[in-house]
Amino acid sequence: MSVSGLRPPRPLGSVSGLLEVTSLLGLDLLLLKAAQLYLRRQWLLKAFQEFPCPPSHWLYGHSREFQKGQELPELLKRVEKFPRASLCWLWGSKVLFTVYDPDYMKVILGRSGESKTHTPAGAALPSWYGLLLLNGQTWFQHRRMLTPAFHYNILKPYVGLMAESVRVMLDKWEELLSQGSHLEIFGHIFLMTLDTIMKCTFSHQGSIHTDRSVIAVEDRKSLAFFRLRNVFYQNDIIYRLTPDGHWNHRACQLAHQHTCFVINLRKAHLQKEGELEKVRKKRRLDFLDILLTARMENGSSLSDEDLHAEVDKFMFDGHDTIASGISWILYALVTHPEHQQRFREEIQSLLGDGASISWDRDPPLVYDQSALFSFCPTGVTVMLSFYALHYNPEVWPNPEVFGPSRFVLSPPTSHFASPPWPGNCIGKQFAMNELKVAVALTLLRFELSPYPSRVPVPIPRIVLKSKNGFHLHLRKLL
Length: 478
Fold this sequence. Notes:
Layout (H helix, E strand, L loop, with lengths): L11 H36 L23 H11 L3 E7 L2 E6 L2 H8 L10 H5 L11 H11 L5 H4 L2 H20 L4 E3 L1 H17 L9 H17 L7 H6 L1 H31 L2 H7 L4 H7 L10 H13 L3 H15 L2 H15 L14 H7 L9 E3 L1 H5 L37 H18 E5 L7 E2 L5 E2 L4 E6 L2
Helix pairs in contact: 7-8, 7-19, 8-15, 9-11, 15-19
C-alpha cells in the first residue's frame, strides 16, 4: 500500500460541505422572508382595497413616480384622481397611506391614546424635537411644565421685540435697494426670525448669524428629511456608517455644544439672582427661565437630556417654520396685488404708520390671518397631507385661486395652520403673532411686485420651502 493512500482526506471537502449547507440555509431563509413579504403585501392589498391607487411595481412600488422635484405635482395628480386618500407603495410591503379628506382627517385626529413615534420616520427625526416626539404621561408632564412659557402675560411684551427685529430687517432692505430693486428675501427673513426667537425666548442680545451651531442644526434638519426618503438609512447601524451619518453626528456635537453654553450661562445667572419670584421683579421672564425653574407634580425637574431637547427644539426649530410661512405669504401677496392692497389698507386702519406696535395695538387681522391657513406642513407614515387637503378640489373649488376670505367661514377641519390634535403646537400663538407683525410692517413700508425670471419652485422639506428662494421687486412707499 502506498504512503499516499494512507493520507487523511483533505479539509477542502468538509469546507465545501459546510459552505453548501450554509448556502442552502441562507436560500431557505431568503425564500421564507420573500414568502412573508408576499403574504403581507397581499394582506395589505386586501385591507386597503377601498382605497385604489395607480399600478405599482412589486419591489420598488411607486418610488419612481416621486422623483426629486416631482413630489408635489405627482401628489396633486393623485388628489384629482383619488379625492379622499391614496396609497403609495414605497418598496416591497412598505406602504404610505396618505389622507387629505377633512372627514377622514377629523377621525384620525380625534383618536385617543398615544401616538406612535417609534417608527422609522420617528427615529429619523432629530432627537432634539423634544415635546413633538413624546407620548402619554411623559408628554402630558412636559406639556404642563412648558405651557406657562407661552401664557398671555409672557407673550404680551414679545410683540415689541418682534417689531424691533422686523424693522432691523426692513432697514437692511432699504440699504440693499440702493443697489437695485430686486431682492432675495428668504435669507433675510430666516435671520430675522432667528433673532426674534433668541430675543424672546432666551433673552439673547447680539447676533449668532455666523455661529457654526446654527448651520449645524440646519444641516441636521436637511439630513433628517433625506433619511426619511432612503429605505436603507432607516437602520441606525447602516446610517452611522454612511457619509450622511458621519455628517449628522458632527452636526449633533456642534449643536449640543451651543445648547450647553446657553443653558449653563442662564443657570449661573439664576443662581446669582435667586428665587423665581425675585427674578420676576428684576426682569421679564422668558422660556428658558421657566424651563429651568419648572417642577413636575412629584417635585422633580427636567433631566439634562430633556432640557437640551426642549431648548434645541425652540431655539432652532421655532424660527424655520415661521420664516417659510412669512416668505410664502409675501409671495402670494406679490402675485395678487389687489389682495396686497386690501391687506395694507386694513393694517393702516389698525396701526397707522406702524411706528408703534404692541399687543394692545395688534388686534386680530381677520383678513390677514386667513391667508396664513394656506401654508402648512405635512405628516408621516399615515400621512395627513395638509398640502393636498388645501389643493383638494372636492373641498376647495378652484384651489389654485388665491382667496383668503374663503377660510373665514370654512369648517376648521378643512384647513390647518397648526394641527388641532391634543399635541398641537405649543408655540402656535407666538408664531401667529410674529407672522402678523412681519407681514404688517413689511406691507406698510414696501410695495411688493414679482420678479418674473425667478418664480419660486416649491419643494417638500421638514417645512415647505422654495428650491430657488424668493426673489421680489420692492418699492419703498412714501
